[in-house]
Structure formats: structure tokens, C-alpha cells
Amino acid sequence: MYIGEQLINPTDKRLRLSAQLGARGIVIDSRPNAPVMASDDVEAGLWDGRKVAEQRKWVEGHGLTLDCLALDVGSILLDSLREPEKAAATAERLRHNIRAAADGGVDTVKYTVAMVGITRTGVVDGRGGMKCSIFRADEYKAENDARFSYWGTVLPEDETGTKPSPLDARGAPETCGQVMASEAGGVSEADGWRAIEYLVEAILPTAEKAGVRLACHPHDPAYPPGGLNGVHHVLGSLDGLRRFISLAPESKSLGFNFCQGTIAEMSRNPTETVLEAIHEFGPQNRIFMVHFRNIKGGYLDFREAMPDEGSVDMAACIRAYREVGYQGILCPDHVPFSEVDPDRERFFAFALGYTQALLQAA
């Protein structure tokens, strides 16, 4: 087990900082990932295996490993329900990119099953006045969804005044085809599973043949019974994660981008639920990478938090990962915002150091 970072459009300078902070691995979350595109046509979205190899060697040149690339599934999930021809074209692109990742020496890609973004409803002050995204289901409003949710790689409003509103990016490639729940047209539980099964069936055989692992990020956050605006989050519970794995129980390529914060959000007893998930999916070798993050609160009412101040016992989680034999990357994610750290580099550095200390203590 080792610390690493998940970065969007990293520069040489940013990779140097990661190495200096003690990171070993890098996950590139760029969507779209222009440096690996086969042409200047970013909308086509096709990767070139040779350019993937160049990106991998560039990362390795900083003494780091390129552990994973983000596979941009766009709107394929909603399209599989509404526009099957568009979904089929996206599926072909995804299969091409999985093969290109393998050709370039990258054996893991991650993707999200979010159709409607990562839903948040506002911001509250944390320690020292840092700004923390919140989700309170009983305070949900479409206008807050638009401002405070994460859209693909577009960050939410944080009330620091240091960056544009995500409303300015509506429809941009960086939003990765995600929409507000009020715009999705309703997604029943049956629809949710039908869309996920479509995606898995479309890309898993290619990944298995190429020797690539598909790291699925569950729904963030868990939605209340009945969903929000008719949209259900079927991977918002441990039972949902179990059903997901049952789609291909023998496959070595089907697993999770295991987001501790997301799993903590599924329960009013977040530590117990996260530990249960680690002990269940770890021995099955279904944990392909970890978002090692914390929240304050739990199911339907939480705020994002620094790793040392939340409701999850992070030291117990480290011990659990060791017990189940997990040997992969631990990435900080979703740290709060602050006008005194507008790029959040210091906050991420704190999270890395905290995680490294836990590893050494364990």
C-alpha cells in the first residue's frame, strides 16, 4: 500500500511536487485527456496507445508510476436508455480506449456511473473557515444542484470567489455528459440497473481480453428512497455494490474505484460500513484503487472533511486494508476549499502526509 495522487491535467511542476511529497503513484483524472488523443479532434475522444505510453513514461520520468487513467463514459448510461445509437458509438470508443490503455502499458482505467453528477446542496464552514461541500437531502433544490454539485471534472461553487461558477461550464466536455437530476427525465431502479448492465456488457469482454481492470466509482451520494427528481442511485448501498459484482463474479477485470467517502455516505454508521465493505470486497480482489477520504456525518446529511476530522476511523481503515492484503494506491480526494489555498495543493499535501503517517503507524 502506498500514497499517490489523482490529478487533472498535471504539469511537470505538479508531478515534481507529488514526488517531493512522497507520492509513489499517479492517477490521471483528465477528462478529456488531450495528450493521449489520436488526433486534435478531442470530441472524437480516441486514444493512441503510443501516446498513452508517452504519458506513462513522462510520469515515470518523475520517479512515479502511472497507475490508472480515467475512462470518460460520457452520457452512455442515459443514452443507453434514450438514444441507443449514440450509446453504441460511445461503447465503440470506450473499447478502443481500453485497448489503447493496454497498448500503452496502463492496466487500470476508472470510470463513474454518475449520470447526474456528484450531487451537493450547499457549502458550510469547516475549521478555520474552510469551505466544505454538503449534501442534505431534505434541503435539495435544483438551483443548488446546479451550483454546488461536481460535474465531471468541474468543481462546485465554494463561495470563496476564487473560481468561476460551474454554471459557466454547462455542456462543456469537462462535464462528461452529466446533467442535473431535474434534467434526466427520471431513472427508475430498473433503468439504473439496465444502464449499468449495458455498460458492463459493452466494455468488460474487451477489458478482460486486454488484461485491463475496470475500476467503477459508485454513485455519490446515496439518494433517499424514491430517489431525487425520479432518479435512483442503485450503487448507493452495499447491496448495490454486491449486485454489481454479481454481474461478472468470476471476472478479474470488474472491480471498484473504492471511494471511502462515497461508501461512508451510504450509512448512518460510516466507520462500520466502510470496514464491512473493505473486509468483503478486499479478499475478492475487487478494490483496484482507493479514494482515501473522510466525511462528517452520514447517510443523507454530511459534509466533506479533512481526513483527520471526519466520522470515519481512518486508522482502522488502514488496518483493514492491510488485513485483506490490499497493496495498491491510496489517493486523497474531495478535500475542502479555501481562498488561502485556491488550488488546494496544501490541503492535498496535508492529506498525503496524514495518510503516510497512518501507514507508518500501522
TrEMBL record:
Keyword Manganese: yes
Catalytic reactions on record: D-mannonate = 2-dehydro-3-deoxy-D-gluconate + H2O
Pfam families reported in the protein's UniProt record: UxuA
GO biological processes: D-glucuronate catabolic process
Protein keywords: Iron, Lyase, Manganese
Cofactor(s) required for function per UniProt: Fe(2+); Mn(2+)
Family matches, as SUPFAM superfamilies: Xylose isomerase-like
Enzyme Commission identifier(s): 4.2.1.8
Pathway: Carbohydrate metabolism; pentose and glucuronate interconversion
GO molecular function term, any single one: mannonate dehydratase activity
PANTHER family: MANNONATE DEHYDRATASE
Function: Catalyzes the dehydration of D-mannonate.
Family of the protein in this entry: Belongs to the mannonate dehydratase family.
Protein name, entry field: mannonate dehydratase
Naturally occurring in which organism (per UniProt): Azospirillum palustre
